[in-house]
Amino acid sequence: MSEPSTAELLDFLGEYVTENKRSKMARALDFRTRHLSIVLEDIYQPHNASACLRSCDCLGVQDIHVIEKRNEYRPNREVAMGSAKWLTLRQYNDTTDCLERLKSAGYRIIATTPNEDGFTPVTLPLEGPAALLFGTEEQGLSEEALALADETLRLPMFGFTQSFNISVTVAVTLSRLIERLHSADEAADWKLGREERDELLLEWYRKIVTSHELLEDRQFGNG
Length: 223
Prior knowledge:
The chain is built from nine helices and six strands. The protein is an alpha/beta fold and 223 residues long. A six-stranded parallel β-sheet has the order 3-2-1-5-4-6, sandwiched between helices.
């Protein structure tokens, strides 16, 4: 027996998903994007790690690339509120490996820094895919990461303190950029294509349907 198609699997597993959940997933997919992705370098505080995931899910950013050189990425489940289930997390042990892979996939690497010459969320060009690179509060991004960045981005600040909490930086940056994507024609292709939507929906179905492997084997297996 040939392997079932994605469409066949969706039709089959969809019978085990409530109408309410199917509706919520369809709406989320309408606003999901890979046009913007984020890269977190050595973020280790559980609260911050989790809040970044939650912001990405809330704003429709699907892919999070996590670099663990010195620190293990340890999200706090209570803060993440289950957001990790709906996101695609990719983990790396090497900054160069992560960023070179993203460049090969067509992403511009945008390093967030206090550099006064950098773009802001209002001025950053959005015509092509961009991976936004964030570092720790204490040390910021590594020299390796900064050397590989194509451009820099800063959040304007007007008080005595000149840095946001990392999770706040991610949330504010993404919120402003996503609003631009939704309201302008700067990046008309920011939405997922049909194939990407179906593959992601199947992934979500499999995460919530109990014993989906057994069900699929019974329906489509050779036994």
